[in-house]
Amino acid sequence: MLLVLCDIDDLGALNVARRARLRGVDVLVLTVQALSFAVRRSHRLDDRGSRTEITLADGRTVRDRDLTAVLNRLPGAPADAWQRAAPSERHYAVAELHAFTLSWLSALTCPVRNRPAPDCLAGPVRHPVVGLAAALASGLSCPPGYLRATSEADPASAILLAAARAAGPSGRGVHVVAIDGVIITPQVPDAVHVGVRRFAAAMAADRALLGVDFVVGDDGWWFAGAGPLADLTSHPAVADRVLDVLGCVPATIPATVPAAAVPEGVAS
Fold this sequence. Notes:
By secondary structure, the chain is α/β, with parallel strands linked by helices. It has 2 domains: 2-122 and 245-267, no CATH class; 128-227, no CATH class. It has helices spanning 11-22, 32-36, 87-107, 128-137, 155-167, 190-202, 236-245; strands at residues 2-6, 27-31, 40-46, 49-55, 61-63, 69-72, 112-113, 172-179, 182-183, 209-217, 220-227, 266-267. It has a 5-stranded parallel beta sheet with strand order 7-6-1-2-12. It has a 4-stranded antiparallel beta sheet with strand order 9-8-10-11, sandwiched between helices. Helix 1 packs across helix 7 (236-245) and helix 4 packs across helix 6. 37% of the residues are buried.
């Protein structure tokens, strides 16, 4: 079973699930909201490996042994059920649920995109300034600019604004999607392909989904930031490529069975 973990309004993840069902793949979409209200969680680690079971509010159970692949798009710890708790209890619950999810997804033996990082459950992420330095070292064009501790703009916004200034008045934003360091987005220069592959390796995202932003001007492609929540709706080929990487091979579906007849299996 393919498990898709995402926010309730993550259209890209939902499209990947839809494309998987069209391939005849058994899919469960588990939103962060549904995961938050699970009635039981069990995660055991020993010298034989890990065993995890999560019982959802509707009675279904998610077991790691039943999973063949996972697309992880969790924006944060599944802690919605604790949002009205006292601050001290809420903060404790968030920390515990973050640790549970981090250990669970890190221990899975099936293909996972993206495996969580300690500071971001959605996958590898670095401080924007670290990302800028890695982009420069990878051969991507980086805009000149200054970052001050007293600046009102956050570093990510400052880097984006610097890229827009470098691109000039004709600049346009381009979001590039890379899977395992390979760009899927069409019409990207060869030099950017090479730079993004090096950048993904430097960011420990060479086995992950990565979104890289550029501002494109008359004189080139200027790096404007990156993150693990790539836009999976940016190009029709993205969803199918994600499924290929996860090993979700198309099955033969009888022509008499419409695609809509494939069970949804959505927990929201």
